C-alpha cells in the first residue's frame, strides 16, 4: 500500500467556517472551501452563486462563514467579485482578497460568460470551482462537467452521458490569465502550495478543485479522501498548474486502472467492460497529448 502523505497545514490556523454548517457528510466541496480559506486568511471577501454552498452556508440572517459573503445569482459570481474588487480599489483597500467559490454548473455552464469576461479583463480575483460534476443542489442533473458514462437524474443508466467532460482549464488558459491550477483535498500539501501561490499573484487566478459528492456519485461518505486519491492516481484528475500557459504536473502518480476509481461510484456501475476501456483510452490519450508522457 502506498504511503499516505502527511497533512502539513497546521491545526492552529484560523477556522473560517463554523461547525454546524449544512453540508452533507463527506462533502468534498465544503472541504475545499474550508482549506482554501484557512490558507488565504480572514482578510477576505467571498462571493457565492446559487449552488450547494449557498445551502451549506445557512439561511439569512445566520451564516456558518466568519467572513463577508455575497450571495449572487448563479451566472454572476465572477462579475460580482470583480465589482467588489473595483470598490475596494476605489477605497484603496488593496490588501483584501476577493474570492469567488462556485460549483461546476455556475462555472462550466451558466456562469461561463461572466467568468470569461472577468478573465479577459484580467480582474484581480481568485475564482475557485468546486467541481462535483453535476447540478447537485437542484436534483443531480448533468452538467458539461459530468464525465462520459455517468448516470445522473437527467442521464439515466440506460441513457448515460455520451459526451466528454468539458476541459475548463484549457478554456481558462485561452484567456492568458497568469495562473490556473487543479487541486484536491486528498493532497493537502499540493493544495496549500497552489493556494499560497495563487494568493500572491495579481490578476485572474483560477483553481479547479475536485469535489467528490457522496449522494451524487453514489459512494459511502467516509471514502471521500480515498476517492480523491484514486482520481489522481488513475490520472482521471491530473494535479497540474499553469503559469502564463506553461503547464506542468505537480504530482506524477504511478498509474492505476481507471476501473478502480469508477468501481467505487454507483453512477458508473452500469458501464460495460468495453465502455470502461473507452474511458481508459481517453484518459491515456489526454495524458499523452498534454503532458507528452506515458
Key words describing this protein structure:
294 residues; alpha/beta; Rossmann fold; 8 strands; globular
Describe the protein.
The protein is 36% helix and 15% strand. The chain has 294 residues and is an alpha/beta fold. It has one domain: Rossmann fold, CATH 3.40.50. An eight-stranded mixed beta sheet has the order 2-1-3-4-6-5-7-8, sandwiched between helices. α2 (52-57) links the parallel β1 and β2 (69-72). The longest helix has 19 residues, at 273-291. The two termini are 23 Å apart. The model is unreliable at 1-9 (pLDDT under 50).
What string gives the helices and strands in order?
A: HEHEHEHHEHEHEHHEEHH
Oligomer category? single chain
Q: Give the overall form.
A: globular
Mean pLDDT: 92
Indicate the structural class.
alpha/beta
* CATH third-tier fold name: Rossmann fold
Offer a quick outline of the entry:
With 294 residues, this protein is α/β, with parallel strands linked by helices. The chain contains 11 helices and 8 strands.
Write the layout of secondary structure elements.
Elements: H1 28-40, E1 44-49, H2 52-57, E2 69-72, H3 77-90, E3 97-103, H4 105-109, H5 112-120, E4 126-131, H6 168-173, E5 179-184, H7 188-200, E6 205-210, H8 214-218, H9 224-233, E7 240-243, E8 246-249, H10 258-262, H11 273-291
